[in-house]
Write the structure tokens for this entry.
Amino acid sequence: MPTLILDNGGYTIKAGFSTVDKPRIIPNCISKARSERRRPFIGDQIDDCRDTSGLFFILPFQKGYMVNADTQKTIWDYCFSKDVLDVSPSETDVVITEPHFNFKSLQEAVCELLFEEYEFRALCRTSASTSADYYYSITEGASKKTLCTLVVDCGYSFTHIVPYVNGVKVTESVRRIDVGGKALTNHLKEIVSYRQLHVLDETYLINQVKEDVCYVSTDFSGDVAISKKKLSENNTIIREYVLPDYSSIRRGYVRKVEETGQRAKSTEQILRLNNERFTVPELMFHPSDVGIPQMGISEAVVTVIESFPEPLRHHFYDNIVLIGGTSCFPGFKERILQDVRRDASIYADTNVFLPQNPTTYAWEGAKKFSQDPEFSKYMVTRNTYNEKGLNAFVKICDI
């Protein structure tokens, strides 16, 4: 039987059998809408909702960790159902990703769900960055015969900078930054609510706005200078976002550049975005701007690499891998490359690798690992777990 690959993120679940080319991406939440109070929308059922204004979310993850097992089970029930993945747990092996430094009680909760509630045949526990490192080492890194890889995992609740030497995570050098996609969306909500419209209850909408118009600046001071200009003075940063009315417009969209500044139609409500487009993603590089006393991503990357002996630093600088949905911002890769080159203490070839789809790269790595001859060593059967509990996971994939 094929192995089920379950990249269980805080924002989305990337799930699919090892026989398929692409995973199914399902929001890891239960949504409730004002327009349909009686019906909860599980996962991607939200696509069936006619009016997504004022959505209320029930999340199994908080601050990057699965703290609500009941909610997670409800979402998994939907994912494993015949209409979605059609999983027969008793005949299926499963690979699941967990966050780094996961608490033991939460590890136990996940294992109990998968083994005792669903009764999967066998389980392999790993992390998204470990899967990404494995996939990179046998594809992009194979030609370089690389020894060291630095994986930057930009997720929903956090960003992890994780170094690997010969495929083994160097735990004491891992850095976590408490800024991810969720913090950026919340910050954009506050800015827009202060300047234009009250949208503090519109998380779903503002998240779409963030994904559609925001970008990472590679010349922050230059972009600030441009954003201070009026539209008539050649301000190339301003964009206008047409908000949905949930009747004729189901999803908001960005107006064409040549239409920017033109009078809105009677059916259109316009949200104008200027410096918000680049100042919101800038939080990833300067978390202290919103009171988070931590270093930014670029600084953390250099700090982690510089903690290693000089012979290894060249390899790390040459193999920086970006994964996670938050790394999809335009300009993100270029900004990391620019900052790291500037701050590196030694002259070295710096290479930043951004996969074609950073969101599913970890899933693809786990899928590839499930076909490895060594894979069976990391699998724990249900019977073994019943005898030894968490101690059965002696060979764990570097969580």
Remarks:
- The radius of gyration is 22 Å.
- The first strand starts at residue 4 and ends at 8.
- The longest helix spans residues 181-195.
